[in-house]
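Extended Data, panel c. Modelled sequence:
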Amino acid sequence: MESLINFCSQFSVLDNSSIEALKNCNYEIKEFKKGELILRENSHCNYFYFITKGLVKMCFTSEEKEFIMRFFPEHILFTNLESLASKKTSKYKFIALENTSLLRVSSNSFETLCLKHHSLETFYRKFMTLANLNMMERISEMLEEDASKRYENFTKKFPQLVQRISLGDLSSYLGITQVSLSRIRAK
């Protein structure tokens, strides 16, 4: 729980009552084996997830092809914003890429915390803003950059993930074939 508190503190200064409320909130510790689904497509996302150990990908499948939107390593909070906000089923799925341990907090529990603690509401607002900015940056990169530049950006932004992600997953994230990725890496 301490790492979640540290994560939240990066966005908002948490007062002592907010920290105690987070420590005592109704959260679950969940364990997933490599390859296991955390959230299925066409299901409702009702949780925030905080990874204490492991790696997760957010993806969807269209016409038998997988498209990876994001990777989430340790000490990151994630959710499916679209499903959570709209209360609709998710078109995305979350899959553990490594044996993964995470804290799971229901969105209702977290909203209750935000209503009671201004600093947690500030965190939530800033977190949601950053999540939207990250998604806009991801879309812009896919539309404006060539594959070599996308690979270069990824290796600069996430150097610690390059060795942890399979070539197939990395090529899917970059929107290219594994053969193209191999050519880019060889340069």
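The mean pLDDT is 93. This feature is highlighted in the accompanying rendering.
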